[in-house]
Amino acid sequence: MRRIFLLTFLVPPLLLYGLFVVSPYAQAFQISATNWSGLSPTFEFVGLDNFRRLLGDGWFWNALRHNGLLLLFLPVVTILLGLFFASMITVHGVRGAAVYRVVYFFPQVLSVAIIGVLWKEMYAPHTGMINGLLRSVGLDDLAVAWLGDPRFAFWCVLTVLIWMNVGFYVVLFSAAMQAIPRELYEAAALDGADRVTTLVRITVPLLWVTIQVAWVYLAIIAIDGFAIVQIITDGGPSSSSDVVGLRLYKTAFGDGQFGYASAIGVAMFFLTLTVAAMFLQVTRRDRVEL
Amino acid sequence: MTTAMSRRGLLQGAVGVAAASGLAGCALGGGGTTEGVKGETSADNPLGVKADAALEVVIFNGGFGEDYAKAHQAMYRQRYPKAQIKHSATQQIAETLQPRFVAGDPPDVVNNSGGSQIDFNGLVAQGALTDLGELLDAPSLDDPAKKVRDALLPGIVDVGSYDGKFLSLNYAYSAYGIWYSRKLFESRGWEYPRTWTDMIALCRTIKAAGIAPWTYPGKHSRYLSWPILASAAKLGGLEVILAIDNLEPNAWKHPAVVAAAEAYYQLAVDGFLQPGAEGMDHVQSQTEWCRGNAAFLSCGSWLENEQKAVTPAGFRMAVAPTPALSNADKLPYETFRGTGSEPFIVPAQGKNTRGGLEYLRVMLSQAGAADFTRRVSSLTCVQGAGAGIPLGPGLTSVTELIDASKGGAFTWLYSSYYRKLERERVDGASAELFAKRINATQWCDKVQKSADEFAKDPAIKKYQRS
């Protein structure tokens, strides 16, 4: 009886999950071993050819390098900023903390597409707000074509990614910080600890599990990055801000090479899995019991 | 709490369920062949359309909208009142229709256009398209003695042909050239330069007058690769273009291509390009041009329609051919790049391919084409269909351009054979060129290297033109 009761609740969602999540994943593995063009039911199995091609594909490695840079900078900068803002709001309670908490969350409310279009216009050389600000303070030489220069385009995208993610982690960290007993901070203050010491010695260790989770989430965002890159720069100029997800999309829908695109997808799948497992392993620490 | 089943057991069950359901929906598809319904052929119905067969048309909902297509469908229904017509319009052609091609259930007519157009290389390689040759040889709707083929503007059959088969009908006609404002030029006493030396001289004057001589969309820098290739073709003859289209070794290093690239690179070196243009998209740069902040712009004849909302009154935009690079150019100054755009295809697996062909025949009638021009202010590939229709100043200048060239329009096809070569590689190299990060020779080398990659890639089907 109990079994039937459980099954009636579990089977429908599991079926949906299997159909719309697990099955496409499984099929990507199958398709990655074919030369399927995505336009007809005909295809040939080519074994590991697509993966061999991937190894020698300079455009793929170029895109992967940018994902690597994102992976290096996005989690660190976002978490540091998140911790800083959250501790200012929660622990030190700067004036207007409640307002900041709401303001920081704004980007989270906007859809990715809107954020992309918004920032694209912000970076526009003549009409954009960033160059407008620079010119208004006399820094005309710094008002360059941000998205038109391969030296800057990638970093412009990274900035947007940080901007749009930081708010969520401020809220996440604030919530976790509120669970830390005030006495610990009072004790630290009595012992003469300054803000930085308090943050490093008390807040961070007690928040470690949350930070770890944040790290894995941000790493996954860094390995993806597709939507924002596609809208703001479309990988350009000269592929200077290309990411693997965009390469996959263009290979599939632009070039009609679904087999090869699936191989890129499979490579990404293992990459994401490895990175997540590695992060969890490296950052493993004994949980502090309160 | 006691549980009747272990967690592990439940999970194992779940995996089984998931795996079983995975088999149900397969992306690779099964497919089957559908025979196009064919009715009796007659003088009035040369393509053998079955009068009551339903017809499905999918339109790209871009700059031209979808109303013109509804008008064409009304004309089709007038001929076949019993036919059900299913009309839809989308901007996501590839995303919407790709699964239907796989399932073997594509629509009968597709306007395969826009940013997410289905790659022609793939469609052709898979044999997914109906040969439109039969349509070309059918009598036109207006004159039974005249074939549809003879009603088209020159070059239209070339641009839609792959290995000698006419597979895509490019319905709109686009002329490419250098655009300027007649009002601006008349008020300043400037005249459009016929040679490159005069162009550089005029640019100096324009710059001295405090206006940027040129602007361009740095994010789509291929717009400036068009005058380079057009000038190269005029300087060195059409074989320059043929070599490029056929992916011949060193085609992009031909002296004429190098000379043309040098010429346009000069604009960047001499500071004749609008500062900041390297970061603009086409809307931003075209708006700068309409505001009078820049004098010249490279674009196609859709420009007037695209800029309708921001063009000031009396601006009088006009198009001109690319200036001659030398005194000994192989092609006259008046020749220009003119080609079809807005490709229409009839998928081979469609249920009513005969109806699809007939629908295109209706579009290619004088009435169908004139209606299109009237609605969307664009010329069509049908000869003389624009006559008598009041056109805007830009489009009027396009008709003048066509008349002056005396049939001397040409185009390249590498961009439709190998879309990515233009959209990503030439685009990227041109961005570098006009931001002065590489010079003209390096541009030729870089593009040639990409073209060689395409030539070597076994996954890409190759086409030859002559």
TrEMBL record, chain A:
<feature type="transmembrane region" description="Helical">
    <location>
        <begin position="152"/>
        <end position="172"/>
    </location>
</feature>
<comment type="similarity">
    <text>Belongs to the binding-protein-dependent transport system permease family.</text>
</comment>
<keyword id="KW-0813">Transport</keyword>
<feature type="transmembrane region" description="Helical">
    <location>
        <begin position="69"/>
        <end position="91"/>
    </location>
</feature>
<dbReference type="InterPro" id="IPR035906">
    <property type="entry name" value="MetI-like_sf"/>
</dbReference>
<protein>
    <submittedName>
        <fullName>Sugar ABC transporter permease</fullName>
    </submittedName>
</protein>
<keyword id="KW-0472">Membrane</keyword>
<dbReference type="Pfam" id="PF00528">
    <property type="entry name" value="BPD_transp_1"/>
</dbReference>
<feature type="transmembrane region" description="Helical">
    <location>
        <begin position="258"/>
        <end position="280"/>
    </location>
</feature>
<keyword id="KW-1003">Cell membrane</keyword>
<dbReference type="InterPro" id="IPR051393">
    <property type="entry name" value="ABC_transporter_permease"/>
</dbReference>
<feature type="transmembrane region" description="Helical">
    <location>
        <begin position="206"/>
        <end position="232"/>
    </location>
</feature>
<feature type="transmembrane region" description="Helical">
    <location>
        <begin position="98"/>
        <end position="119"/>
    </location>
</feature>
<feature type="domain" description="ABC transmembrane type-1">
    <location>
        <begin position="64"/>
        <end position="279"/>
    </location>
</feature>
<keyword id="KW-0812">Transmembrane</keyword>
<keyword id="KW-1133">Transmembrane helix</keyword>
<dbReference type="InterPro" id="IPR000515">
    <property type="entry name" value="MetI-like"/>
</dbReference>
TrEMBL record, chain B:
<keyword id="KW-0732">Signal</keyword>
<keyword id="KW-0813">Transport</keyword>
<dbReference type="InterPro" id="IPR022386">
    <property type="entry name" value="Chitin_NgcE"/>
</dbReference>
<dbReference type="InterPro" id="IPR050490">
    <property type="entry name" value="Bact_solute-bd_prot1"/>
</dbReference>
<protein>
    <submittedName>
        <fullName>Carbohydrate ABC transporter, N-acetylglucosamine/diacetylchitobiose-binding protein</fullName>
    </submittedName>
</protein>
<dbReference type="Pfam" id="PF01547">
    <property type="entry name" value="SBP_bac_1"/>
</dbReference>
<dbReference type="InterPro" id="IPR006059">
    <property type="entry name" value="SBP"/>
</dbReference>
<dbReference type="InterPro" id="IPR006311">
    <property type="entry name" value="TAT_signal"/>
</dbReference>
<comment type="similarity">
    <text>Belongs to the bacterial solute-binding protein 1 family.</text>
</comment>
